[in-house]
């Protein structure tokens, strides 16, 4: 039954008591409290007993599953296969790559006992899996015929965090990590870029989240990578959110883990590696980017419930209206739809509730619509009601879902553009930052000293280098005045 509230499809919260749609702080007035209220009220996540950890509730997990499916299909279409590696990684494995261990050391949780016995060697709860996966690759890769290796893993990750925010920064989170090996440096670079493109396609088309993308400066590279490509989204409060990264690992991990293969000339070679990942942090990005004073607003492609059918009941003809609503659910096969036939709540209460939950389209059916063989569609973005023929319900809902997604992307794009500025001097930079936080594009000579001066004086960090093909206009480093062709975006960040 479509209106069975125990239906496990969407995990959509069902409020038991009347009057549960409570006020949330205004997004424009208190962004941080607004964010937390939406996460808790929409039942996406909750605080766990262990400080710094989160519980992902069924509605939040349904959203993550939809995101997973969309990404997983893209990974498989590009030849990758899923595997699973253990959570526990021996300390010695982890220490083989010096830069790697140094980069992660402050965030690692260590397991020191098995039952009451102290372990001879500590085990790390994976903060990322390069160490264990490359150790296994060394056993599996023998010949050039074994390459490329294209593996992905969906798993949990542990990184000790002191200051935590639900979804954005927690000590345990969910992600996918891709790990690949290739015969040539060029192939590895192509893979890193292919994945970057795949991620951008997912972010823009499925999450309606446009990003700036390109290389990280050396200071922000993944620990152990040759090159790190990043995607950076802009949040409405002017802070950047790193949405995901794709790393060209060079031969570094292959050398320390002694991954060797015989090439066609029977000569021993080290393969070239990549790794890449996105996490449940993206859910935090979605909430911030699209939500409003009425609550969550989910992109149609990944929304656990894409359309909610709300009967308008007046105590007259109610049975016929409910029957028509059930017909609507049947007609909407292929759309993730929910019928809220609860007679204890008013229609107005339900409107607020499903707006809070970010359901992209509402379908209203009342006694008058029965007579007119019609239905009313209301998009979550406030762009106004549509009166449609009942016979066209499915095609009209499909069309509206696509329109809503398109408008979400366009408005996020407009915000990204409005929140991207450029500064020619350090003074310009400071003024712009004071006036309008966001991405600030500057010339930079490439020196660590100049980078640190900018970081220290502005509390921003270098986010992403502007690709040379987009901008190689010479200018002067805003910190030292040296002429340079390197252009980089700075921003405050989550
Ligand atoms: Zn400089």
Give structural attributes:
494 residues; alpha+beta; 5-stranded mixed sheet; disordered N terminus; binds zinc ion
Q: Overall 3D geometry?
A: globular
Report the total helices: 14
Bound small molecules, deduplicated: zinc ion
Secondary structure tally: strands: 25
Low-confidence stretches: 1-10, 15-20
Strand content: 25-35%
> What summary fits the major beta sheet?
11 strands, mixed
State Rg: 25 Å
Q: Can you give the helix content as a percent range?
A: 25-40%
Distance N to C terminus: 43 Å
Structural class: alpha+beta
Q: Name the average pLDDT.
A: 93
Any chance you could write out the topology, listing elements then pairs?
Layout: H1 31-41, E1 45-47, E2 54-56, H2 58-77, E3 81-82, E4 88-90, H3 91-94, H4 98-104, E5 109-114, E6 117-125, H5 130-140, E7 149-158, E8 172-182, H6 185-205, E9 212-215, E10 227-234, E11 239-250, H7 252-256, E12 261-262, E13 268-269, E14 272-279, H8 281-290, E15 307-311, H9 318-331, E16 337-339, H10 347-356, E17 361-365, H11 367-372, E18 374-379, E19 386-389, H12 393-418, E20 420-422, H13 426-435, E21 439-443, H14 448-458, E22 461-465, E23 475-476, E24 483-484, E25 487-493
Parallel strand pairs: 3-7, 11-25, 15-16, 15-17, 20-21
Antiparallel strand pairs: 1-2, 4-6, 5-6, 7-8, 8-14, 9-10, 10-11, 11-14, 12-13, 17-18, 18-19, 21-25, 22-25, 23-24
The structure holds zinc ion.
Residues 445, 447, 450, 477, 479-480, 482 line the site of zinc ion.
């Amino acid at each position: 039954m479509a209106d069975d509230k125990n239906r496990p499809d969407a995990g959509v919260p069902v409020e038991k008591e009347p009057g549960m749609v409570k006020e949330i702080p205004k997004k424009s007035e208190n962004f941080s409290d607004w964010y937390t209220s939406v996460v808790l009220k929409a039942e996406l996540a909750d605080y766990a007993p262990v400080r710094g950890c989160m519980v992902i509730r069924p509605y939040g997990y349904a959203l993550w599953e939809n995101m997973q499916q969309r990404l997983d299909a893209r990974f498989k279409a590009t030849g990758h296969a899923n595997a699973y590696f253990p959570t526990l990684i021996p300390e010695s494995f982890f220490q083989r790559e010096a830069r790697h261990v140094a980069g992660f050391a402050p965030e690692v949780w260590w397991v020191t006992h098995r039952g009451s016995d102290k372990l001879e060697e500590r085990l790390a709860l994976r903060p990322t899996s390069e160490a264990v996966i490359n150790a296994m690759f060394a056993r599996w890769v023998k010949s050039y015929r074994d390459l490329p290796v294209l593996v992905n893993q969906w798993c949990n990750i542990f990184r000790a965090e002191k200051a935590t925010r639900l979804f954005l920064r927690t000590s345990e989170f969910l992600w996918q990590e891709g790990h690949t090996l290739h015969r040539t440096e060029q192939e590895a670079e192509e893979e890193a870029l292919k994945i970057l493109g795949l991620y951008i396609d997912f972010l823009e088309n499925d999450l309606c989240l446009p990003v700036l993308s390109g290389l990280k400066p050396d200071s922000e590279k993944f620990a152990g990578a040759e090159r790190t490509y990043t995607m950076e989204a802009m949040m409405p409060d002017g802070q950047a959110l790193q949405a995901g990264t794709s790393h060209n690992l060079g031969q570094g991990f292959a050398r320390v883990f002694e991954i060797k293969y015989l090439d066609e000339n029977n000569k021993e070679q080290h393969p070239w590696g990549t790794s890449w990942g996105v996490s449940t942090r993206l859910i935090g990005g979605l909430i911030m980017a699209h939500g409003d004073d009425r609550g969550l607003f989910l992109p149609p492609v990944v929304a656990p419930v894409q359309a909610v059918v709300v009967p308008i009941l007046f105590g007259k003809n109610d049975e016929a209206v409910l029957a028509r609503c059930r017909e609507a659910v049947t007609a909407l096969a292929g759309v993730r739809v929910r019928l809220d036939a609860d007679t204890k709540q008013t229609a107005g209460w339900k409107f607020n509730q499903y707006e809070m939950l970010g359901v992209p389209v509402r379908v209203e059916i009342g006694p008058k619509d029965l007579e007119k063989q019609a239905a009313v569609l209301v998009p979550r973005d406030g762009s106004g009601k549509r009166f449609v023929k009942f016979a066209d319900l499915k095609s009209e809902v499909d069309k509206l879902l696509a329109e809503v997604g398109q408008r979400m992307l366009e408005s996020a794009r407009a915000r990204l553009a409005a929140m991207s500025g450029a500064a020619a001097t350090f003074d310009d930079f400071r003024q712009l930052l004071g006036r309008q936080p966001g991405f600030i594009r500057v010339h930079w000579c490439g020196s660590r000293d100049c980078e640190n001066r900018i970081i220290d004086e502005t509390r921003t960090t270098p986010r992403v280098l502007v690709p040379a093909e987009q901008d190689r206009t010479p200018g002067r480093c805003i910190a030292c005045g040296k002429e340079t062709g390197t252009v980089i975006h700075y921003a405050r960040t989550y």
